[in-house]
Amino acid sequence: MKVIAVANQKGGVGKTTTTANLAASIAETGAHVLVIDLDPQGNLSSALGVEPIHEKSIYYVMIGEKTLLDQVQPTPCTNLSIISSNIHLAGCEVEIAKMEDPMYHLRKIVDAQRDSLHFDVILLDCPPSLGILMGNGLGAADAVLVPLQCEYFALEGLSKIIEVIQHVRGHEGVALLLDGIVFTMYDARTNLARQVVEDVRGHMGDKVYKTFIPRSIRFGEAPSHGKPITTYDPSGIGAQSYRQLAKEFMKRHEIRPRVQ
Questions:
Q1: Cα separation of 25 and 21, whole Å?
Q2: Average pLDDT, the chain
Q3: pLDDT tens digits for 45-68?
Q4: Full set of structural domains in the chain with CATH
Q5: Global pTM value
Q6: For residue 123, how many other CB atoms are within 10 A of its CB?
Q7: Helix (H, G, I), strand (E, B), or coil: what is residue 187?
Q8: What residues does 183 pair with on adjacent strands?
Q9: Reduced to 3 DSSP states, what percent helix, strand and coil does the chain have, rounded to the nearest 5?
Q10: Distance separating alpha carbons of residues 229 and 242, to the nearest angstrom
Q11: Mean pLDDT, residues 146-164 taken together
């Protein structure tokens, strides 16, 4: 089972969109996927059409009242499950901060319960901050997928997240890797987008995914219908892009499609 954090400390770069649509695309292949929402805003549930249930939240796992398996909910997408979030999660940062090794609290939970989680991959949707919740997402993960918007400050933001990865990796027993960088909101018509891609590829090489996620109004529409792009606009360019990204992702992590 692979545990991958989807993270970038900058907001608005497509973390939740990428988590939901990459997960749905992987699940289409028959692989079993779990997404965990570590953002107190709880937008991942809406993106996947899951009605929030107060008692079903990663919050109760973080404070030790429930197990991960207790909190798993199905989604309308076959093979895709979710552990939702709610606003209470923001309040548990203070409680976690008092614990020993607070940045690795979720890692201890995942490691202890790994045998009960029969998934091929877990995607952790991290909040857009460098706080304890994002730290726990990185600390629990095997690798980090960084959605990156094609904008002027992309490299600056990327350097910060790499610094955080290196810091987390310094903990005993943690071998956190940079899985890769996926460009979101890409518009090939602009010189800026092309220049940003060139600069990041120059620094990061094959860590950059070949698949780019284009700008599309459909990405904004899909969550209001409670659907990932793969079911809201299955033949559109957005769905095609995430399916292609899923193929790359699964190849990198040696995740094989299951026979349906």
A1: 6
A2: 91
A3: 999 999 888 899 999 999 999 999
A4: 2-252 (3.40.50.300)
A5: 0.94
A6: 28
A7: coil
A8: 148
A9: 50, 15, 35
A10: 9
A11: 84
